[in-house]
Amino acid sequence: MGHRIKAVRARLDEIGNDQIKFGFTERLIVTHEFEHRKREDTHSFVREGQVIGREGEKKVVKELLFDYNVEEIISIIPIVGIGGIGKTTLAQYVFNDDEVKRHFELRLWVCVSDPFDVKTIVAKLIESATKKRPESLEMDLLQSQLRAEIDGKLYLLVLDDVWSENRGTWLKLEILLSGGRKGSKVLITTRSKRVAEITGTMSPYLLGGLSKSNSWNLFKKMAFKDGEEPKNPKLVEIGRVIVQKCAQVPLAIRSIGNYGIEVEVLIHLWAAQGFLHSSYGNRHLEDIGREYFMDLLWRSFFQDVQRDGLGEIIKCKIHDLIHDLAQSVADSLSNIPALLPKANKMRTLLLGIPILPGIDDYINENIAIHESNKPNLQTLRLDFCRGLKELPEDTRNLISLRHLGLNGCNSLTHMPYGLGKLIALQTLALYILGKKKSRLSKPKGELRDLDGLDELRGLLWIKGLEHSRSSPSEAKTANLERKQLRHLMLEWDPKSSEESDKAVANDEQLLQNLQPHLNLK
How far, CA to CA in Å, does 130 sit from each of 43, 48, 108, 124, 135? Predict the structure, then answer.
């Protein structure tokens, strides 16, 4: 051990000598106490009608701006509050006030964010004052040009979204701002009370949330047509629950977005509930639903989209407050299993885990009891019911079914006979072929059952093709070339592979007969 310590010491001495030899210097690495996500640049404009519930706050800030009873020539007023509380909106509201416009000779706006770079801020100030970008970015020329624009003038400067807690950096900027006429004001918005302590010459203005009535008024403006309260009392009740969960934070009320959802499932639900309509009879409702989705995406109702390898949007996010609301409603539906046999007018049924605790066992034991009682059912999702071994024979009687979700049903052994009757079916991602029936066994689904499903689209995954190896000509009756599929997966169980010439030839024939249309992605 002693030899090892000596070796380490010798190596440290070598490093120390190299430091002197190459002129390396020690520097303290300073990290920001505050971490945040980079936000888009803000701007100074806001329409008065867009701001709800901040009249009192604007009055207080204006009084601070018009106050001459201060010692400093340039007064610095921080507005402090949590993210989304409305600091920038309040600053915009004040900045565009008519009295403020008349009071100050010059009004400047700079979005700072992070990093706090003095040269960049000075360049932005010059551009805000002159409406032109400075020709040179040399710091000496920039500071000279800035002082020429603001010295001796009564100005208002808004520095929006300040994060830096480095007092030395702030003082470098403050020196350049000090030439204005007495009564000039700098309004800073920040989340950090530490920033307010470093920069402010006046006590910070702590911005709180909206009142309950103003929170409701803002929600009505964002959620309902023309900002009018809906006549349906149920919608009003749901809306007030959402507003309560937003905790009076304006950004939360405005955005209502950030909880993940599968776009395909969402569109299927819209279709099943009758929300999608077309004036052209030959258009698929799912295509219309995709247009609805894109329209809502462009309006920022959805965000953070995920795309597949072909660029198609497959997932998005909405606000977790909506999820919390839905969860609270779901908690009141704990008796769903008892109600299922009576639900013969149901359009949508989502039973996949983890929709309801314990539902997997219930499905395995009871699904055959009630499936045939739902002639109106359009969407049935049994995703990740891992113990489900077979679908009921009467599944073929769900004549209105458009979407059958079986993702993750790993125990499923075969498809029921007669699914070809479901001519409205559009989504059937998984189709499993079972062992050929004997005289005593129940009939099972075959490849020919796919013949009538000409509305199928998206993904089709056919498993168990080894069971059709003895009759490859049957595959041609599936007529896959008539279906608007984007993805096709064909699977043989490797455990049942045969290497005989006949088996290989039959598999090749199967593959040939399952030829899809030419536009397959």
Answer: 16, 25, 10, 10, 12
